[in-house]
Amino acid sequence: MSKDINKKLGKRIKELRKIKGFSQEQFAEAIDIATNSLSLIETGNGFMTLATLEKMCRALNVEPYEIFKFHEDVNKQQMYEYLKHKLEFIKDDEIKLRSAYSFFQNLI
Asked: Which of 35, 56, 86, 107 has its CA 20 to 30 A from that of 23?
């Protein structure tokens, strides 16, 4: 069980690091750990101290809960169906619909 959590945590850290545009070397330097230590964390084969977690949060500009917010594996069709369902749900709420419309306009 803990191995699964380590893998999910490592995957999430790697995802956030890439979103923020850090290479593994740059991120390791920013949080003051060795690159191979970061690699172990990102692959789920190592763990970090709370001090390192705090440094990660600062470097990534995220709250700690965001690092532990794991995404389930879904395929493109599932994502599309989920979004379609949510849009159907808000179709009569003009404020929510405008907000979604604005969000999608800014994606492209």
From this structure: 107
